[in-house]
């Protein structure tokens, strides 16, 4: 059965990158998985893969988490399909490039804050409230080292992730003692976002981490599964760095 054999796990940004690695790992541990991202085709493809490989129930859902209505529709779809959610992983993230701080448009700013902070708030508030009523659950927010090491090239993103750290601690207080809320503060990982990094940026990351490399998506999975499982029964409101040893 695995650690999550009787659990329903919702992963946003679940069709690619770190989210895809998480979905595969939760399914391997027996979880029923809800795969949410903007592109339904990618969600359906991954759902078919993990269902065939592990024999677990799956639910692919198109969801732009920056939309309040889409978040509510995702919650309704989970309620209809499974009647509950035991684990929520707020993984969806967005960090678009911009030429200079003075050229950050209102639309870009709102989009970055919407995906990285507004959506996680709405989903955690809705599903966390249901978890409390059901007697327990776990929420894992995927933050970033940018929250505490902000740079000018990703400042709106860093602001949003700093807010996500604050949200994590506040929700832990709001939903305790039955629902735990934690965050993984990720360093540089080889995901779709990293495809926009220049060789100079990659080299700078490699030189600055104690492990002298960037991470692979699968390397964030053990921390996420730990925080989502009963192994972390006395851990809530924590922000765990998984960053290769960023200074």
UniProtKB/TrEMBL annotation:
Source species: Actinomycetospora succinea
Pfam families in the record: adh_short_C2
The keyword Transferase belongs to this UniProt entry's keyword annotation: no
Keywords of this entry: Oxidoreductase
PANTHER family to which the protein is assigned, alphabetical: OXIDOREDUCTASE, SHORT-CHAIN DEHYDROGENASE/REDUCTASE FAMILY (AFU_ORTHOLOGUE AFUA_5G02870) (PTHR43639), SHORT-CHAIN DEHYDROGENASE_REDUCTASE FAMILY PROTEIN (PTHR43639:SF1)
Name this protein carries in UniProt: NAD(P)-dependent dehydrogenase (Short-subunit alcohol dehydrogenase family)
GO molecular function, one term: oxidoreductase activity
Protein family according to the UniProt entry: Belongs to the short-chain dehydrogenases/reductases (SDR) family.
Domain Ketoreductase: 7-192
InterPro entries: KR_dom, NAD(P)-bd_dom_sf, Sc_DH/Rdtase_CS, SDR_fam
């Amino acid at each position: 059965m695995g650690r999550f054999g009787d659990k329903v796990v919702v992963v946003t940004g679940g069709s690619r990158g770190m989210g895809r690695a998480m979905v595969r790992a939760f399914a391997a541990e027996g979880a029923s998985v809800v795969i949410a991202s903007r592109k339904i085709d990618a969600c359906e493809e991954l759902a078919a893969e993990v269902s065939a490989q592990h024999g677990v129930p799956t639910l692919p859902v198109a969801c732009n988490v920056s939309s309040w209505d889409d978040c509510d529709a995702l919650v309704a779809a989970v309620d209809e399909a499974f009647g509950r959610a035991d684990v929520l992983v707020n993984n969806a993230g967005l960090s678009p490039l911009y030429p200079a701080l003075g050229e950050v448009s209102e639309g870009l700013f709102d989009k970055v804050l919407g995906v990285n902070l507004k959506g996680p708030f709405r989903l955690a508030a809705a599903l966390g409230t249901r978890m409390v009523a059901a007697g327990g659950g776990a929420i894992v927010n995927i933050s970033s080292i940018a929250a505490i090491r902000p740079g000018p090239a990703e400042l709106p993103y860093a602001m949003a992730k700093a807010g996500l750290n604050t949200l994590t601690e506040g929700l832990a207080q709001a939903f305790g003692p039955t629902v735990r809320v934690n965050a993984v503060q990720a360093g540089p990982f080889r995901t779709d976002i990293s495809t926009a990094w220049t060789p100079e940026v990659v080299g700078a990351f490699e030189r600055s981490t104690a492990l002298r490399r960037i991470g692979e998506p699968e390397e964030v999975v053990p921390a996420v599964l730990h925080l989502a499982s009963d192994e972390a029964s006395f851990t809530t409101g924590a922000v765990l760095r998984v960053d290769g040893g960023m200074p």
